[in-house]
Amino acid sequence: MKYLIVGNGVASVGAIEGIRRIDPDGEITVVSEENSPTYGRPLISYLLAGKIGPERMPLRPITFYEKNNVKMILGAKVVKIDAKAKTVTTADGFDYPYDKLLLATGGVPFVPPLPGKDGSGVYSFTTLANAETLVDVAKNCKDVVVIGGGLIGLKAAEALHDRGVRVAIVELAPRVLSAAFDDKAGNLVSKRLNDVGIGVHCGTQATEIKRDAAGKITGVALKDGTFLECQAVVIAIGVVPASQLAKDAGVTVDRGVVVDDRLQSSDPAIFAAGDVAQAKDLLLDINRVVPIWPNAFNQGFYAGKNMAGADTPYGGGLAMNAIAFYGLPTVSVGTINPAPDEPGIEVFDFLDEEHGIYRKLVFKDDRLVGYVLLGEIDTAGLYTGFIRFKFPLDAETRAKLIKGQPSILQWPQGFFDEQFNPVGAQEIV
Amino acid sequence: MAFAPINKNYHDFFVVRDKDACINCQVCVRQCSYGVHYWDEARQCVRHDNTKCIGCHRCEAFCPTQALLIQEKPSNFKANALWRPVFIKNIYKQADTGGVLLAGMGSPVDIPVYWDNLLLDASQVTNPSIDPLREPMELKTFLGAKPTRLEFEETSNGPKLKTALTPNLELNIPIMFSAMSFGSINFNLHVAMARAATELGTYYNTGEGGLHHSLYKYGKNTIVQVASGRFGVHRDYLNAGAAIEIKIGQGAKPGIGGHLPGEKINAMVSETRMVPLGSDAISPAPHHDIYSIEDLLQLIFALKEASDYKVPVSVKIAAVHNVAAIASGVVRAGADIVAIDGMRGGTGAAPAMIRDNVGIPIELALAAVDQRLRDEGIRNQASIVAAGGTRCSADVVKAIALGADAVYIATGALLAVGCTLCARCYTGKCPWGIATNDPYLAKRQNPDIAAQKMANLLKAWSHEIEEMLGGMGLNSIESLRGNRDKLRAVGLSQVELDILGVKPAGR
Amino acid sequence: MKKIYPIKEVCIGCRLCEVACLTAHSKSKDIILAHTVEKQADGLSARRTLAQEGPVCVALSCRHCEEPMCVAACISGALTKNTETGRCEYNEEQCVGCWSCLMACPFGSIHRHPIKEKIVKCDMCAGRDMPACVEACPNAALIFEDRGKD
């Protein structure tokens, strides 16, 4: 059995581990346009910030690939898939055959049609190469503007600030982290950033990147009239699934590559996982692209198991983010900004601005469907459990969750035993 | 502590904490059910209130650095042979409360323990010992009525027994678990006793708290008790066990009935005993349908009828002054087994005055009953089981030599699972989880561990009995029963020797 | 593969497992030094912790899942699943303290280190014959055995 994985992001590592759980012998080949084996992509902000060195970047030790008998073809971009012949072709003209193919091509940064974007000094922040470039940029620039106040944008801003650059963030929504957090949490984070001297401009957008006669960036003009002086711009608005390959191969693509709960696409020999896939969502009934690191790993893992013949369903992805800003830890999971007209929704929150503590819980009917924690994040996992396992909550348990006291012992009878003490709970008599 | 009633400061125990070893882990705080240890927020360390300590040793046992020691409070009253401190303190308590003094477990009073005056024989030269590792040692015993004569008839296949035999209990070892009601003790311990009895091939007694239906499967090794309160007594109950025992009296509190405080009654106890939640479960002193020996005969035969004569009926009486005559009456009334409970027997709750002052020692009672039944020629009509203060296998051997067919142990079984005889069973706060069904505390008795410990105790004693028997040149309990000649006594008066039927050492 | 199974029906909430766990993971292996000096100076903490609701309690730690959520969430590869020993292994040096694992574990088994930006998680006492918590439990509420695949 020949397994071919396109892309060496975290989904590909998940796939290798998943395949090997079922099939210790099949041939696994990974083809990637990047030049290094899988690295912890979110670590690029730590690298940029100078918190870690490049030796910490690999996600698995090099022995991982030997132990799992994986052939790595790096620096090779796949440009075509021949679904009938079951081969992929790389840019340098090589063909690689497969029995089962996994598309783990991830996402590409979305760059808006912003006047002045073409030319030097405009960067994305999604790859190791980007991070290495920005390390140099930080040496040479006094000011940098980050367009995009989401997770990537804020981490880029924080990292550059740590390198001694004066940073300003521009965000279209009325607050930063509009997707991952709500107003109160977003404001707590903004306050933290302001406290350390990072400028935050919300509710406006960049209209033009101004350059001088020599083509060097002088600054960014905002819709509200402000002009932010800078010598470089980082665009961190978001990523879109890199699904062109699949489209060209005739595989069904919507926003991402559409896959079923075995991560199988419309072509039975082709699977997809990670930021490129449009897969089952744990909470909603639709398939979605949820470009979150743990989902990418899990999708890769299940794709791998199913490619190897396990036929086990993937439970679905959850939106989840854990990120810390200057010592303020934050966690958000599930649905946290429910639509105002969504039925059955009840929201509770607790804010202690002075101590930087925030807790928000979103219930739908009798279940927990989302939460945000800032500051006191130690109970995060237990809340995630309530969401993931979809426990129906009685009034007493719900009250305890709201008070910030979730506990495994509030789980429904029997579930605890299934998870912790299967093969019969202790028989008393 | 300041401003406490004066009585509080004459408490009996105090805690010694080795500050260098204390790691403030608070295990003692969590384990003490009397609230002695507590976390002092201001001083950021664990401290203790000695006035609450009742000397159960739970904290000392659990401290991971052995930092705790429980000691008797050394401040002494002036020496007074009459007014010993316990009498003084009891008066203080009663002046405060106006109430009856309660006590738990067996009487601790300082009167002779006859087991300690009795010594066993051993074989030498003329009558060699038997090596229990090489030769069979029969510890088996049968409890029930034995026929006066056996009649046989000749058949083509050889002689056949004509005499009908009454039902007997077959014990692999001459030791059974005595009655401790569910409610006075933890349900988990009933499970443990049921399992240990099954494993060892002996029996346990349900006590007067009824039998929970989940334990019916151990019925083959269960003796169901019918006491004066008739708690939990219904037809299925009577048919669930291998024997039925009518409890007339209990050694710890002869003449009065049982008492389970309302606090110790939870849903399961309530269901099993068939009493309402929270109300005290009091058994009356007499059975209100047994006012004469004829009434007892009626009840015995009513039970035999109800159980189709399939199981032996036992009658448990307390050892009191007239115990020999009473026992004789009980046997003539049709009891297959008469169980005698001596004054040292334990209890979950009894008035202290009765526990300590009423009843007679089992050694004397046993010898008297055995002798009386022999004298009347009815010794075979019932087995005698001795209870109340059997502490070790040597006591068991002595009891059998004095005439018992088997012994009941209860305090010993509880000690096996951790009891330290602090004797506060009536509070329902037993920190060892023994005398309580409080959900926070009952878990402290893991039925698996308890069953193992009880079984271990019986196994250990069985091996020791085999050694002692072999040492005496005997190889069966049969040969030991009532064999007074295997005993000698030291330090007893002639009258005591006569009652026990034992010669003084040297003769 | 042997795993630790907690039995909530007989857990008595004494927390001796926590005391043993902390001591076993100390540098000195001395129960007093571990709970005084090392706890203060190094933020040493137990990996197994008691959960309690009313009279029901049980001591829980990482259950070394077959398909661990923490491994999926780990952005640095500090958490990995060793399919041979069955342990979920944690490489503290590789960890960057992002708390993704803490968020992802639906059993709440991962805790923040009190001082460092690292996590604290049960390692099933690699290097010991019997996990310290199992040894210390006075009521057989932690069972260490192989139940085949679960």
> What is CATH's topology name of the largest domain in chain A?
FAD/NAD(P)-binding domain
Question: What is the tally of beta strands of chain A?
Answer: 26
User: Mean pLDDT across all residues of chain C, rounded?
Assistant: 95
Largest sheet of chain A: 5 strands, parallel
- Percent of residues in helices of chain C: 10-25%
Strand-residue proportion of chain A: 25-35%
The spatial strand order of the largest sheet of chain A comes to 3-2-1-7-19
Tally the helices of chain C: 5
Return the CATH architecture of the largest domain in chain A.
3-Layer(bba) Sandwich
* Number of contiguous helices of chain A: 11
Structural class of chain C: alpha+beta
Largest interface: A-C, 53 and 45 residues
Number of domains of chain C: 2
CATH class of the largest domain in chain A: Alpha Beta
Strand fraction band of chain C? Answer: 15-25%
Return Rg of chain A in Å. 23 Å
CATH superfamily of the largest domain in chain A: FAD/NAD(P)-binding domain
Distance between the termini of chain C: 10 Å
List the helices and strands and how they pair.
The complex is a heterotrimer of chains A (429), B (507) and C (150).
Chain A: E1 2-6, H1 10-22, E2 27-31, H2 44-49, H3 63-67, E3 70-73, E4 78-82, E5 87-90, E6 95-97, E7 100-103, E8 107-109, E9 122-123, H4 128-140, E10 143-147, H5 151-162, E11 166-171, H6 183-196, E12 199-202, E13 206-211, E14 217-222, E15 227-229, E16 232-235, E17 239-241, H7 244-248, E18 257-258, E19 270-272, E20 277-280, E21 287-288, H8 293-307, E22 320-325, E23 328-334, E24 345-352, E25 357-364, E26 367-374, H9 380-388, H10 395-402, H11 415-420
Parallel strand pairs in A: 1-2, 1-7, 2-3, 7-19, 9-16, 10-11, 10-16, 11-12, 18-20
Antiparallel strand pairs in A: 4-5, 5-6, 8-17, 13-14, 14-15, 20-21, 22-23, 23-26, 24-25, 25-26
Helix pairs in contact in A: 1-8
Chain B: E1 13-17, H1 27-31, E2 37-40, E3 45-48, H2 58-62, E4 68-72, H3 85-97, E5 102-103, E6 118-120, E7 141-143, E8 152-155, E9 158-161, E10 169-171, E11 175-177, H4 187-200, E12 204-205, E13 222-226, H5 235-240, E14 243-247, E15 259-260, H6 267-273, E16 281-282, H7 293-306, E17 313-318, H8 323-332, E18 337-341, E19 350-351, H9 352-357, H10 362-375, E20 383-387, H11 393-402, E21 406-409, H12 411-416, H13 439-442, H14 447-472, H15 477-480, E22 487-489, H16 494-500, E23 503-504
Chain C: E1 2-6, H1 16-24, H2 31-42, E2 49-53, E3 56-60, H3 69-73, E4 79-81, E5 88-90, H4 100-104, E6 111-112, E7 119-120, H5 132-136, E8 142-146
Antiparallel strand pairs in C: 1-8, 2-3, 4-5, 6-7
